[in-house]
Structures are given as C-alpha cells and as structure tokens.
Amino acid sequence: MKKWLSISLLACSALLLTACNSGKSTQTKSTTTQSSQVTSSASKNGYTDPKELKDSYDVIIVGAGGAGMTAAIEAKDAGLNPVIFEKMPVAGGNTSKSSSGMNAAGSKFQKAQGINDTTDAFYEETLKGGKGTNDKELLRYFVDHSAEAIDWLDQNGIKLDNLTITGGMSVKRTHRPTDGSAIGGYLVKGLERNVAERKIPIFVNADVKDIHTDNGVVDGVKVQIQGEKAKNIKAKAVIVTTGGYGASKEILAKYRPDLKDYVTTNSKGTTGDGIALVEKLGGQIIDMDKVQIHPTVNQEKGILIGEAVRGEGAILVDDEGNRFVNEMDTRDKVSAAINALPKKRAYLIFDQGVRSRATAIEFYAKQGYVKEGKTVADLAKTIKVPKANLEKAVANWNKAVESKQDSEFNRTTAMEHTLSTPNYYAIQIAPGVHYSMGGVKINTNTEVLNKDNQPIKGLYVAGELVGGLHGDNRIGGNSVADIVIFGRQAGQQAAAFVKAQ
Question: In the annotation, is 331 catalytic?
Fold first, then answer.
C-alpha cells in the first residue's frame, strides 16, 4: 500500500458529509485488535497511520477543516514541517457543510463579469450586517485580503468563478464552483488534494487534550490518537482551527439558553473544544452569547438550505401562501420574521430556472425536501396553502422583478429572474442554530491575545472559533472567506515565528 493515497477520494460531497460526521472519536480504551483495525482503516482512507507519529514537528495544526488545511498548506510552502490533528474520523468539519460560497471584493472573476465592487463597500456592508460591533481591524484585514484569497485558491486548482449574492450584500460577490454547486465539498476536496500533494500528515481520531507552554511560549500539545494513551508532541508553534460551538448544547445552554433546543446545522465535532484549550492558557474569550440562527433549515435533519437559493431568485411565503419579508435581508432579520409567524416556519418557492442556477437543490431533492407542481396552483395544492394567495404572491413578485421595484418588502437584490419557468417547487424551512460569532480574541496576525491584550507567543487561531470579526450577525458567504483568509495568515505568521526562533 502506498503511504499516501489520494485524499481527494475520501472527500465527501458538500452536504453528504453530515452522515460521515455522525461517527464519534473512539473514547474508550481500545484493545490491540480494535486499534489495529482502526489504524488499517485510517490508512486505507488516505490519512496518516498512527504508527508514523513523530515526537516533534515545526507546527501543529489542531483541526482539519478549511482553516486548518489552509494553514498547513501555507506553513509547508514556507518550508516548515507541519502536522494536522483532527478529532473526528474524517477531515472537513463544518467547511464540508458550507453551501452558498465565498465572499470577496474586487476579484478577477468579478472584473471579468463586469461586476464593479470595492473592498470599502464590502467593509461597510459587513459592518452594517454585524450592527457595527465587528472588530474593525480584523474586518479591514479580511476585506482587503479577500480577492487575494480567491486567487490563491485558483492557483491551487480550486476555481470559484460562478458568482451569486447573499443577504446584506449589494452586489454579486459570493464566489462558487463553476457549476454553481455548494462550495463545501468542492473546497474540502481541493484542500485535501493540496495537503496530500505536499505530503502533510493528517492524523484522524486525534483528540488534543492540552496545549503546552515553556516559559510562556507554546511548545507542543498532548494528543490522544485512536483512543490510545495520550502522548506529548513537541512543536515550535500551534495553530488552533477547531471551529465554533454550534453543536454544543452545554455551551448554548450556558450562553444562549433560548437556543438550546433548536436544531443545528453544525457537524457533530463543532463543540468549542479549541476555545476551551485556548482559554485554559489564558487566552481572551469574547462575545460567547453571539450565536447566529439561519432562517432556512430543514428541521428533520438540520440540513441548511443554502442562501444561494434565495440569491438566485426564490421567495419565502407563509402557511397562507403570502410573502412576508425581504428574503435578502440579513439572516437575523429573516429568521426573526419567520419566528414571528404562527407556526414559526415558511416555504421557499422557486421555479426550474432557480433550480438550474443553484444546483445544490439537486441534493435537497434527493433527500425528499423538494415538493413539486407543474403549475403554481399544483404546487399550492401539494403544500396545502391557499391557491389564490400563492398565485398572487408569485404574480406580484414577477411584476416586481420586471419593474425592478419591490413595493411590498423593498427587496433590491437577486431580482434578475422572474419565477415563470415550469416546474415550480417548494421547500419547507424554519430557523436553526448555524454559526457562533463568539470565541477567541486575536489580532490581525492571528495571534491569540491574553486578558492584557498581549499575544501568547507561538499560539495562533483561525476560523469560526475566532470572536469579533462578524459582530452581532454574520453575512452569508463570509465564513468561507474567513477560514481561507485567516487560515493563510495563521500559516504564514506561524512560519515566520518558527523561523525567527
């Protein structure tokens, strides 16, 4: 067997990884037979055999989601010897479940399509979406390096040249794969391929228990792999990229008890582990009560119905078949409007045109979420809403698109196409816990800050476990941009720190 099989073969599709993530890391002490079976399985899937674990590395990355793999690639390209520890049985994390795309302003793909955009506009709209509470230094770095991140992905064979729009944005700056599909699986597969090509080891079922320091400088971790005895591994820097806490009922109950019974779109591993590790070292933790609920979530399995569906022209109606909100408003406002309805649910209504432009819908259809009618009247009968109301809602919407003026709810974006191409479709949705804006306080070098706002030497953080960037409410498409932009920065800065030692 070759030491490195193509990791891309194991990449799950964007949303099918939900099933993959349902497995839990081995927590009980394994027998020798069980351990060898798990080790063999890991090797077959392209991950690193636990027997190959070394006593030290230049950089340890905790978490194999988008931010972690991006950081590892940058560290390796800077000439270092990085390793990735992932507590789940597969890489990808929440990145695999990302749907709509990656926001960036002034990208070459925008320019090629005649879309005029600026980082200043991106900054102001993100600040407005976050209700002015965003960390402004982080936000400035974020928007100014967004187009560069799109280029970096393209240079590594991950092309995002299909553009759409999300709520709170004024122009098409959400970058997707060429075919318009969900970004998650595509991005994870591309990053895994790059990790494999660089022979960067990924150990799965690898649970980091502690981060160690020596005279105030980070110098390694304690990690338990495949449920065996935990080992201390040395490193000159540690990058934590373990995600947020949207799947932790305990953390939600502590900081947002009103949300503890909501369904969650998060993978099972998104339980705030990295935040706890950093806090134990004296890292500053902020904004833990800031949790985003996403307005369009399937309630049975917690599957996110991506914002790109609305971005390509879908509307929302209530149980009476009436529109009730500007569908392209920010997520917090759309969620609040749905929760104000009697049954706290709504229907996404769209036609074949939307379905052809937002190809992630095919996954939703295979799961049985999509209801269909040859006409709007047929669809109304299928979903049991008043026919006259739904027909009127669609007709009024089409008039608004044609006149470019939505007099009912003042929607101004994603109005390029009428809903007039049979067949017609509906997906029932309601809000669910989606993203945690709170977490670790960092500076623009991704260095963790202690309670005196001083960097903890050798410790870097990127991704959803960072607090402050998104303020009170995250804009759709900004999370993927976040993990790539700050994942790159963490890898680069950790490499510079190691070389300086």
Answer: yes
Query: The tokens of 397 are what?
Result: 């919407």
**Structural domain includes residue 9:** no
Q: Regarding predicted confidence, which is higher, 36 or 218?
A: 218
Q: What is the rounded average pLDDT for all residues in the chain? A: 92
Domain boundary residue, one of 403, 431, 459: 431
Share of the chain above pLDDT 70, in %: 91
**Does 326 sit behind a cis peptide bond, omega within 30 degrees of 0 on the bond before it?**
no
Structure confidence by residue, pLDDT tens digits, 246-277: 999 999 999 999 999 999 999 999 999 999 99
Of 498, 468, 496, nearest to 482 by C-alpha is 468
Q: Is the same domain home to 364 and 417?
A: yes
Is 7 part of any domain?
no
Q: What is the pLDDT of residues 94-145, one digit of tens each?
A: 999 999 999 999 999 999 999 999 999 999 999 999 999 999 999 999 999 9
The C-alpha torsion from 204 through 210 and 213 to 216, rounded to 10°, is 120
What distance in Å separates the CA atoms of residue 277 and residue 409, rounded to the nearest whole number?
A: 45
Q: Is residue 4 part of a domain?
A: no
Range of 173's domain?
A: 39-289+436-498
pLDDT given at position 45: 65
Strand partners, 61: 84, 239
Residues 44 and 151 both lie in one domain: yes
Tell me which residue of 71, 454, 458 sits closest to 234, measured CA to CA.
Answer: 458
Given the structure tokens 């995600």, which residue do they identify? 243
Chosen domain end from 404, 431, 458: 431
| One domain for residues 129 and 273 | yes
Same domain, yes or no: 271 and 384: no
Q: How far apart are CA 373 and CA 381, in angstroms?
A: 8
Q: Which of 176, 310, 323, 331 is an active site residue?
A: 331
Contact yes or no for 470/437 (Cβ under 8 A): yes
Cα–Cα distance measured from residue 432 to residue 137, given in angstroms and rounded to the nearest whole number: 30
Burial class (CB in 10 A: 0-12, 13-18, 19+), 186: buried
Inter-CA distances, 456 with 159, 216, 239, 283, 379, Å: 36, 7, 12, 7, 58
The model's pLDDT over 405-444, given as tens digits with 9 standing for 90+, comes to 999 999 999 999 999 999 999 999 999 999 999 999 999 9
pTM over 0.85: yes
